[in-house]
Amino acid sequence: MLEAMGVMFFLFLVLAGALMCGFLGAVVAARNDAPGLGFLMGLLFGPIGVIVAFALDGRPKCAKCAGRLDPNATVCQHCGHEWGAKPAKRREHQEAIAAQHRRHDEARSAKCQDRRDARREKWQSVAAKWHGFGSESKFLLVFWFAIVWVAVLVFGGTYLWM
């Protein structure tokens, strides 16, 4: 009975560590528009996945110079290459999107807008706190978390086999 509880506790620690690594991976990769991939990397590969999440980039690439682009841009800021739809089609598309936004804005209630603003302010403050750290501080935070996670796994496993 005691051994079964030890195994369950160890599995709980592994699951909690994996979820924490997934969350950290999502937070780290969100700066480059790839939070889902960062969560998956952190969840599957633990602290190593969180470190890899620093290199993830979900932004599109320019076909001409392979530079990273702003997802809303139609012209590459590196080489000036125009990509996306033709100008006339782009204008029609933008007008259709603007009409859709107007209809959506008219239907939106003040209560929903207030809730959305509160959520946006909350996440902007969280993001501001995270971006307030320097990249060295973020790396050290993830590095120490990785060491603690590995220590829990090693010592937890040692405890189970004693």
Give a short summary of the structure:
The chain is mainly alpha-helical and about 160 residues long.
Strand content: under 5%
What's the N-to-C terminus distance? 15 Å
What is the count of DSSP helices, taking H or I runs of 4+ residues?
A: 6
Largest sheet: none
Output the helix-strand order.
HHHHHH
Radius of gyration: 22 Å
Number of strands: 0
Structural class: mainly alpha
Q: Tell me, briefly, the overall form.
A: extended
Query: How many independent structural domains?
Result: 1
Helix content: over 70%
What does this structure look like?
It is a single chain. With 162 residues, the protein is mainly alpha-helical. It has one domain. 72% of the residues lie in helices and 0% in strands. The model has no long low-confidence stretch (mean pLDDT 76).
Offer a few descriptive terms.
162 residues; mainly alpha; extended
Furnish the topology, listing elements before pairings.
Blueprint: H1 2-29, H2 35-45, H3 47-53, H4 87-107, H5 110-132, H6 135-161
